[in-house]
Description:
about 400 residues; alpha/beta; TIM Barrel; two-stranded parallel ribbon; 13 helices; 10 strands
Amino acid sequence: MLVGVVEGFYGPMWGFLDRLSMSLYMGRVGLNLYFYAPKDDPYHRLFWRDPYPPRYIDEFSWLVEQCRRFGVYFAYAISPGLDIDYSSREDIDILVRKLDSFMNLGVRILGAFLDDIPPELRGAGFKSLADAHSRLANYVYRELSPDRLFLVPTFYWGYEEAYLRELGGSLESGVEIVWTGTHVVSPKIGLDDIERFREISGRYPVIWDNYPVNDFFIVRGVIRLHMDYIKGRDPRIFGYIPAYMANPMNQAEASKIPLYSISRLARGYQTGEGDIDKAIELVLNEEIWDAFRLFTAMNRSSPLDPGADLEPGENRSKEILEMVETIRRKTTNRKILAEISPVLSFLEMLGRVLSKGSKIEGKTSRIQAAGLYDPPISDESMRRVFGHVARRTPSWLATPHPSS
């Protein structure tokens, strides 16, 4: 079974070395799928018709080979939905050539991602949007014969019954439908959810799990880490779904901590605190294990569990300051140190405030941790995207957070 990562977030992309490091880590922990699909890669989405420059192709070639060495399948997706004409032979041929260039590098799993676009039907001769999407996917599959083609539909969450029923009934068997669950960031994904999807579409979905992704903070100028183990997923779904891929954080190295729990989930285990401990031991040097456990404890909240953070009081101020100093001074993983440095500075400031028996007054920095969970989107948007309002205000904040 394919279980891994989809680099599918908005905002700052991972670098080439991040991807190499992640593929090595994935091989170590039993994850075997790396899907390349960053929204801000212009050649993937906005300028999908343009070929990649030679330097990019060289990097992809190296990455494909390294993934193979580590037991990981490298997959590539194109996202043409913003402006493709589904009836244009020129557009379709460009898309096929672009994907074929990756098959020439040894890529055998491809993606056509039609998410986060207006549900507009561009082109003539189609009876519906689902008809246009299935014809596009089927044509690509027949022309290129990949091992699998993953289709992210425009209605990729919830149950848009007419669309999903028509799509599922018309796709080739080698084309998989990707789905994020009942919501964009689904609070739970269980057997009942995937069974209902199958009843509508005629097939089980590939799960695109929007955890630990944090781009809905990052693109709005807020830093918020999601470092808890995966929650709310029934491990029994892996006996039915064809594949599962987690959308990680913009911070590649920090993403390794929660991703370890997903490797355990896929093997049928209930996830828990021990997964965080083991991930820390895999990613970081022993001198900072205890300090980093405290750090992750204050960076656990997410839409899956917005109250998961350790919220420190005055009695932990000294411990927080010592934790910050230990991580800064003794961490040998300089990449993760760079990623979490703004959060360390915030926690240092919080520790000093708590040591005086004080509270933070008014507006805080653009960093959230230690019990403050306040996504910079409206309550209405949160209900639609998360299925609930995920806000928490800690006792150390003297006044409500500005976006509350």
